[in-house]
Design goal:
Layout: H1 5-46, H2 65-99, H3 111-125, H4 131-154, H5 163-185, H6 189-196, H7 211-223, H8 225-231, H9 235-240, H10 245-266, H11 273-285, H12 289-313, H13 322-345
Helix pairs in contact: 1-2, 1-12, 2-7, 2-10, 2-11, 2-12, 3-4, 3-5, 3-10, 4-5, 4-10, 7-10, 11-12, 11-13, 12-13
């Protein structure tokens, strides 16, 4: 064998030898993630004021109060936590790819604030509309707010890693100020604060099924993960590959708007999930959306379940809303990510 071919053959044999090891490590990671997510879900089912025994799952009596608490309250709440956390995390990942910046998410670019404004408008002038109609109005407002953010970015020539989230925060602050002013004019500030903060305590059977719509939209985004990965590389790169960049961007914005509207209408705002989870997964798996999107969804569900458990255990039998706990935990993790990024750049 020629001497020049020996390094190539040896490297090829090493890659084949490492393949089973990589598959084994990947399988272990998936197993550990599934076990951890299952443990958090079981903990969510077990924690609460009512004493729930697992043998009530097989109870045939319809008058069993414990079984009713479990099936009509605990299970819907756990499902809502999983659906909302995973959908919000995937929406944050898409937002970061479309804006080409790792420090944006729906709650920092005006999407959540716009959806909240849409809900307030419905409560003031169309309180009798069905929930789906209110969700549609909130989605339209969220889409308009997100489109305004993308349009503002297109007019900024010097776009640094810090300018993009700064523009988003300013826009979100302006929209939130307008929403608060409108609520003040109609004496609805307390009501606005009550339902806009992420809270799952009122979730029961029949009041969370709208989140399955966000699940369907999230699955559609997962199926188009390769296209969104290309969109994250820039307009010229996507156009050279034969993709309609503008249509792809608007598809992503519609996904983010619908997911955000579903979550805001059902449980309120959950901050930092779409910011923290994609960045943590990106540090481990890279920027490939197809490779990381399922991990982002699972990590978002796990983080939301964990914050809900903390909020229910700290001052039991009372509880702290998930949005409040997530704000504290998310801000601390966000500072860690910022310091890590600054250290890497320095």
């Amino acid at each position: 064998m020629p001497s020049a071919a020996k390094p190539f053959v040896s490297s090829l044999s090493c890659s084949h030898a490492r393949a089973p090891q990589r598959w084994l490590q990947g399988g272990i990671r998936i197993l550990l993630a599934a076990v951890l997510l299952t443990a958090l879900a079981v903990g969510s089912l077990a924690v609460g004021v009512s004493d729930v025994h697992w043998d009530t799952l097989w109870s045939s009596s319809e008058d069993d109060l414990v079984a009713q608490v479990l099936m009509y309250s605990r299970v819907p709440r756990t499902m809502a936590l999983v659906l909302a956390g995973s959908a919000m995390a995937v929406a944050g990942l898409l937002m970061q790819m479309l804006a080409r910046n790792h420090f944006v998410e729906p709650s920092t670019v005006g999407t959540v604030e716009s959806a909240t404004l849409g809900m307030l408008v419905c409560m003031l002038w169309a309180p009798d509309w069905p929930v789906m109609a209110k969700m549609g109005v909130a989605a339209l407002f969220a889409l308009a707010g997100t489109g305004l953010f993308i349009g503002a970015l297109s007019r900024i020539r010097l776009r640094s890693a810090w300018i993009v989230p700064l523009v988003g925060l300013i826009l979100a602050g302006v929209i939130e100020a307008g929403t608060m002013f409108l609520a003040y004019q109609h004496e609805m500030i307390q009501s606005l604060r009550a339902w806009s903060n992420g809270d799952f305590s009122a979730i029961v059977d029949g009041r969370y099924e709208m989140l399955y719509l966000s699940l369907a939209v999230t699955v559609m985004a997962c199926l188009a993960a390769d296209r969104f990965t290309v969109a994250g590389l820039g307009e010229s790169f996507a156009t050279n590959l034969g993709l309609n960049y503008k249509a792809l961007v608007w598809q992503g914005l519609v996904v983010v708007a619908v997911v955000t509207a579903c979550i805001v209408v059902t449980v309120g705002s959950i901050p930092f999930v779409g910011l923290i989870v994609p960045n943590v997964v990106r540090l481990l798996l890279g920027d490939n959306v197809r490779r990381s999107v399922l991990w982002v969804a699972a990590a978002g569900a796990g983080l939301t379940l964990a914050c809900d458990l903390v909020g229910r255990l700290v001052i039991a039998p009372y509880e702290i809303p998930v949005g409040t706990v997530m704000g504290v935990v998310g801000s601390a993790l966000f500072l860690v990510i910022l310091l890590r990024q600054r250290k890497r750049e320095g």
